[in-house]
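Notes to self after the Tuesday call (sharing in case useful).
The group wants a holo model before anyone commits to mutagenesis around the pocket. I volunteered. Ligand is BES. Logging inputs and output together so the record is complete.
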Amino acid sequence: MSVRFAAIGALLMTLSPTIHAAVPSGDAHSFANTREFRATHLSLDLQADFARKRLRGHADLTLQRLDPQSRRIVLDTRGLTVSKVELLQPQPVALKFTLGEAQPMLGAPLSIELPASAQGKDVLVRIHYETSPQASGLQWLEPSQTAGKKHPYLYSQSQAIHARSWIPLQDTPQVRLTYDAHIRTPPELLAVMSAENDPDAQRDGDYRFRMPQAIPSYLIALGVGDLVFRPIGKQTGVYAEPAVVEAAAAEFADVQSMLEACEKLFGPYRWGRYDLLILPPSFMWGGMENPRLTFLTPTVIAGDRSLVSLIAHELAHSWSGNLVTNADWDSVWLNEGFTTYLERRIIEALYGRERHEMEDTLGLQSLQRDIADLTEQGDAALTKLDMDLKGRDPDDAFSDVPYEKGRLFLGFLESRLGRAELDRFLRGYFDHFAFQSISAGTFVDYLTKHELDRADARITRAELQVWLDEPGIPALAVLPHSDAFKRIDAQRDAWLKGATPAKSLDTSKWTTHEWLHFLDNMPADLSSARMAELDEAFHLTTSTNAMIAHSWLLDAIRAGYTPAWPRLENYLTTIGRRKLVKDLYEELLKTTDGKQMAQRIYARARPLYQVPLAAQLDELVGKP
Ligand code: BES
Ligand code: ZN
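Result:
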């Protein structure tokens, strides 16, 4: 994952010192005055206008008054045009409002003045607004950018701080709210949300949703397109365009078993249905754990179920993240580290120990690369579990650290407590903090009470401190190893030494994991001729597995293997998943010719990419 842009956020912060002033919530990424008013329910009424690429309508917010003196509500917005604000309860009256100056990363605070007569515990305000066509949390796709090529597509991505670009609200994970929504679309399209979806909903352009469980704003999500539904298991299914739905249902056939495996380990699934929404390839993430409806890149449809750990990951967030939520983005490892650990346990339950070891090992390699990059860039502080993201865009500061270092921390707990005790502890933790947002400190207190303070404690406070506060991978970590990968290393070595020609390598039983390990650990100075030998034997340039193609194309750029160039261009102009495209650009930029190629391709590809990815690549490659 990428970290290079972390510094830019910091630079912007020094240029706009006013940002520091506005953190009344204690969350450095929100303007909301959550200590005075706290939202409890949101009611949306929006029309999706595809011609103008705007959502238009109103948002009703029920807010609980925590400070009886307070007459002002401050909400987060970004790029919204607000036309009117009304008080609906306790009595209907028009309200004065001001939209503050927009900050590059945080957007603009919306301050709403309440009249002195608006007494009482709850207030209900209605905000009439419309979104911008460049809303950072929405992507409006032309028919040509979809699988079916006939209908447009719209999807949202609210994490980390993009909900404010399509809904005015308190955009901090500290606040949890229920919601309902009335969404109008062109009649031939279907809308789905991170809420109760009716698989039998009539397609008429008028849809209603209800999310009865309180969730943080970053989990509010909407998708609109030419979608159809296929059931998978008794509470699971997939929404996708007709052209991909069969392949998706086959690829993700194990999702019901995954859900049941996770329930057995960590307690009941509390959200009713668990469906998947397959997005177009422009989606910049692999997956997003929107409750009841995970959003997913189509690049995991490999044909052999080899990339389904991504589903296990998003599903696991139904416990770690959606049920027990990080209260701010500094503690994101509470979401992602726990989830990565749960993900691997699901994989082991379904596919066995060897696959678990391979995925842990690939994760460790990726973590080591990120730690080296961050350290080299002078950002070693971002290699701590507890980060300080004040002044940084949480999107950009994300690396493998919260994921894989967090996973290593849980692996360490497992090694000391034993699996049975860790499972018991985690189950209790999910029950205890269900539907709450907590800081890392709250977790540490809970761990201390239940494990460290025991007479027979197996972990010391000093050890815990090392995990939380020290950069890099602690010496305490129990590092994964994979015997399967040792065999791959031996084969790679034999080929590199010239002892075994590519054609004679025994790859017949390799899965995606073995191929990734084989390709990701090639020497940097591999020649173009040797790449040609591999390509002739294994047809890697034409691989339809997006992950294998990604590793191969990285090697191809390093080796200057020109026969792969048309594939590289095709790849970069059809896939917008950040993890797959960004490092290809970075690798290209290392040479003068490569830079020219990167700029030429980027100019063609940019309209496909999501707003936050395009912003990052503008910095990296140059705005076309
Ligand atoms: N919640 C994340 C995606 C995310 C993180 C969105 C930060 C916005 C900001 C999701 O659960 C995730 O981690 N996705 C990963 C896949 C996973 C298997 C590592 C991804 O998209 O790469
Ligand atoms: Zn995640």
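Two things stood out.
Residues 174 and 386 are 17 Å apart (CA to CA).
The radius of gyration is 24 Å.
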